């Protein structure tokens, strides 16, 4: 189709998307990175301060507590979400009456706005009027724990709600991966005496390596992005000790109007998220070639 | 029950394995039902609370004897839910239609048209897809400033343009994925019949992309429907409140009336779930395609 390749025709097709994307995606990213090297505040002029913003993170206790909270959420997601979603996919992949409906129901929380999910869980986790503590009191726990609002349990609660919301999403990807496994290999494994857990360990899991890689990257990048749940469940409090990296960045940028520092936090958060995900992928790939 | 178990033990050997798998499947079904019920319980809880009086929620939320519709009256009278739906609908319809059309055009050019400079095509493809790796949070403040500089602050365009940009990498990914597998013969035949670019792209190939388009439309609608970070940053006009902004305000708005808060939450929750129930096939199909191919 050589005649199609007239430059103005190509340009006409590509430019609309390219212009919006460059203006509202690329330009903001570049601007953020540049701004992170200045002392920009609100709308006044700003001067270059070099890496000062990045250096001051080291002395910022709230940065470290946000990092810690993000790490807790990340670990909870990796430990609960991946095995849980995989187990669910195996379970709901069986020939169960109404399995299709069950899969659709498990996925449903992903369609609901995360901000609404947060509100819903306030009424379960709230120490005073939440369902969970009401049930605990009912079975005789005199002083049930402070799931949200305190400093110790908040990140664990946020992580758990994130697991609850996302498990159907990850489960669906695992389910698709399981469906794509060649049936004859599974049958051969069964005939060779590899049934149940043995087949799972030596046949199913190794063949799903690609799917496991994708889901892990999604879980890692997803954990770094949690924002609405923090806003709704704890508002970052008390005294910003339950902030995550993203919510703390938002607080610094729009609350304190400390743009230079906020953008430095945004850059570090993005770099951390992407590099953890990429690092994990590289690790998987090396393991694959070594095996 | 006990007699049937006993007969099973006494039955001939060959019968046992089949019965055992049958029983194990039954056990799996029970676990599956229980797990699913537990997972959807949190959403049901909100609906249950929305029928209770405020005093009941504070004192004894598990008491389900006194249920009534009073909260819904309060919620619909005080909150302007229709306004939130209208705003979200405007944002979603414009950004989703424009976003999908632009993404399709770019993807068509990148996969179906001939480029004299292949490096340019590959570079552009990489450039458009690179956005998948970048979290939108880094965009919030620069986009806020950009909107002010372009004079878009306070208009719907302030959200529509970033929504299009943020969804573009995923839309291009899905379109290029499908277009790459699409047979070229149909277009060749049309070219011989004298078809030009507009006919090829829009009247011949686009209709055949219907499943992808459906998936993308639903996906983009869900995205705009639930989007919060951009909305909370870029909107400060109460008449432009979107659904997720409205939900975020429930807590402050109903700081004492939890029943009304739950009724409002239910009024937002149920349409979302209903919409999903109708289109869930496309949602799940698009999600697995994007994930497995990406």
Automatic annotation (TrEMBL), chain B:
Keywords assigned by UniProt, alphabetized: Cell membrane, Membrane, Transmembrane, Transmembrane helix, Transport
Protein's name according to its UniProt entry: Carbohydrate ABC transporter permease
Feature: compositional bias, Polar residues: 1-11
Domain ABC transmembrane type-1: residue ranges: 85-279
TM spans (from-to): 27-51, 89-111, 123-144, 156-179, 200-225, 258-279
Segment forming the signal sequence: none
Family membership noted in the UniProt record: Belongs to the binding-protein-dependent transport system permease family.
GO biological process: transmembrane transport
Membrane disposition: Multi-pass membrane protein
Subcellular location, record wording: Cell membrane
Gene Ontology CC, one term: plasma membrane
Pfam families xrefs: BPD_transp_1
Disordered: annotated segments: 1-20
PANTHER family associated with the record: ABC TRANSPORTER PERMEASE PROTEIN MG189-RELATED, ABC TRANSPORTER PERMEASE PROTEIN MG189-RELATED-RELATED
């Amino acid at each position: 189709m050589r005649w199609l390749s007239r430059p103005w025709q190509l340009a006409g097709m590509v430019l609309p998307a390219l212009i919006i994307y460059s203006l509202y995606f690329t330009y903001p990213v570049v601007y953020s990175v540049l701004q992170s090297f200045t002392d920009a505040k609100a709308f006044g002029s700003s001067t270059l301060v070099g890496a000062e913003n990045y250096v001051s993170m080291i002395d910022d206790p709230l940065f470290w507590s946000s990092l810690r909270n993000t790490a807790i959420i990340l670990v909870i997601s990796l430990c609960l979400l991946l095995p849980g979603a995989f187990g669910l996919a195996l379970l709901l992949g069986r020939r169960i009456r109404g399995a299709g409906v069950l899969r659709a129901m498990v996925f449903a929380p992903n369609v609901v706005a995360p901000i609404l999910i947060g509100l819903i869980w306030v009424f379960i986790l709230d120490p005073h009027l939440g369902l969970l503590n009401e049930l605990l009191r009912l079975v005789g726990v005199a002083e049930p724990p402070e799931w949200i609002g305190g400093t110790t349990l908040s990140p664990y609660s946020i992580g758990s709600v994130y697991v609850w919301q996302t498990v159907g999403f990850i489960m669906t990807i695992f389910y698709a991966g399981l469906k794509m496994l060649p049936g004859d290999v599974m049958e051969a494994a069964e005939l060779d005496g590899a049934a149940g857990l043995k087949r799972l360990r030596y046949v199913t899991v190794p063949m799903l390596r690609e799917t496991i890689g994708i889901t892990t990257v999604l879980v890692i990048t997803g954990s770094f992005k949690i924002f609405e749940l923090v806003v709704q469940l704890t508002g970052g409090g008390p005294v910003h000790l339950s902030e995550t990296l993203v919510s703390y960045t938002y607080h610094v940028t729009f609350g304190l109007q400390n743009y230079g520092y906020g953008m430095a936090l945004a850059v570090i958060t993005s770099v951390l998220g992407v590099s953890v995900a990429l690092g994990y992928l590289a690790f998987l790939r090396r393991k694959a070639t070594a095996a | 029950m006990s007699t049937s178990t006993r007969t099973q033990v006494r039955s001939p050997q060959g019968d046992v394995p089949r019965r055992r798998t049958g029983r194990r499947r039954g056990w799996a079904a029970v676990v599956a039902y229980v797990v699913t019920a537990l997972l959807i319980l949190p959403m049901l809880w909100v609906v249950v609370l929305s029928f209770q009086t405020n005093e009941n929620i504070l004192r004894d939320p598990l008491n389900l004897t006194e249920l009534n519709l009073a909260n819904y009256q309060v919620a619909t009278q005080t909150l302007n839910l229709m306004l939130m739906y209208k705003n979200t609908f405007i944002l979603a319809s414009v950004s989703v239609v424009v976003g999908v059309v632009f993404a399709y055009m770019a993807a068509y050019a990148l996969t179906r048209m001939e480029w004299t400079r292949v490096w340019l095509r590959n570079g552009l493809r990489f450039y458009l897809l690179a956005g998948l790796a970048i979290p939108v949070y880094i965009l919030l403040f620069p986009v806020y400033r950009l909107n002010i500089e372009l004079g878009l602050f306070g208009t719907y365009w302030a959200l529509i343009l970033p929504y299009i940009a943020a969804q573009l990498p995923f839309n291009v990914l899905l379109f290029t994925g499908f277009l790459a597998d699409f047979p070229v013969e149909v277009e060749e035949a049309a070219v011989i019949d004298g078809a030009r670019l507009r006919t090829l792209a829009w009247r011949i190939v686009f209709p055949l992309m219907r499943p992808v388009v459906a998936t993308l439309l639903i996906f983009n609608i869900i995205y705009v429907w639930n989007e919060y970070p951009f909305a909370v940053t870029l909107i400060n006009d109460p008449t432009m409140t979107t659904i997720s902004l409205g939900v975020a305000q429930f807590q402050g708005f109903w700081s004492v009336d939890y029943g009304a808060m739950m009724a409002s939450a239910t009024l937002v929750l149920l349409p979302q779930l209903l919409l999903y129930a109708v289109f869930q096939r496309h949602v799940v199909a698009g999600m697995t395609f994007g994930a497995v191919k990406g």
